[in-house]
# Entry
Amino acid sequence: MQSMYDPYILHIASWYPHEESPFEGDFVDRHIRCISTKTSGIVYFSKAVTKPQVTMQISENENCTVYKRLFQRAGSLSNYSKYHALANLDINTIVKENGVPLSIHCHAGFPGLSLSSALADRYDVPLIFTEHSTIYQQEKLSFKDKIVFWHLKKYIAKANVVCPVSLAHSKSIAAKCTVQNLNIIPNVVTDPFFETLLKKSSTPSKLLHISSLDDDQKNIIDLLKGFNILRIKRPDVSLTLVGNSNIKLVKRLIKRHKIDITNIKIIGPLEHTEIPKLMTDHDLFILWSRYESFSLVITEAWASGLPVVCNDSGGITGENNDVLGQLVQNYTPEGLSNSICETLDRYHEFDITQIRAYAQERYSKSSIAQKYADLYSSLGIL
# Structure
């Protein structure tokens, strides 16, 4: 049957942009498009939403076809059951139209990993699992998160290869789950970040932070406190906070903790295509998280020639060094303030072309696509 059709990888995306949440899983979308530059791909994504679509949506994206099913939101267990019921019907349609896939590639484990495992068994093809979630790093889990983690732990053992996005992420997964094989492949930085004109200010003062602005993970309140301490030493500095969610929550945090908002700007939501220029209009990128699985925004900052100040919170934060910025050892607002001040004082020492080259070699589309092509080849898929 397979010989009748063009070979393809079936990507099961647990997170993906959709009408009610256009920024959800946008990095998964970019990841799959990158992989599909080397190997033809079909994406299946299903989600419970408030305003469902009557029929499955089919669209041609860059390098791949996307099948998207948006169904009526209900209770959590009902959502999960309906997800599987609809997905099985939809996958049958996809296979009827395109043939049996060479492999199942699951991106983010819940709820797609159980479906992916069943499909790999059904079609007797390898199962690859690229994980992005920080759930393995979190010390305290809600009841819902415990259910999700139970699901992940059960099905991750069935994957032929698990692809964490960083060494720290890999260690966290291995410490809590049984896995057959781990192959670390980072997230991808798209071309526009490498194509912007590099700028280096003679009077660096513009700080930038981009994230979900979730205080539990990103520790926004201590970042703001550190900036307030810094402004006493350097009144010229400014801080731009960018997020596609939680902006109202951050503003409430500012009010509750009586943060001086002088020289602080909060903006968003922004399309991903707007970020490269925003980065080149700033001098220094700041991340102050409690835990990370990767930290894509750090690699995008490096690709834009920005030095990064961050603490070692997992993901690739531990890669940061004096050539790329500064890795802060003192995880306090005072420690952050001192490190930013020190980094600005030696800003003239940074070679922004070298910083970009570091990101280009490790995180560019060509680099990541080749890593996945090599992985597929090692499994006999290509």
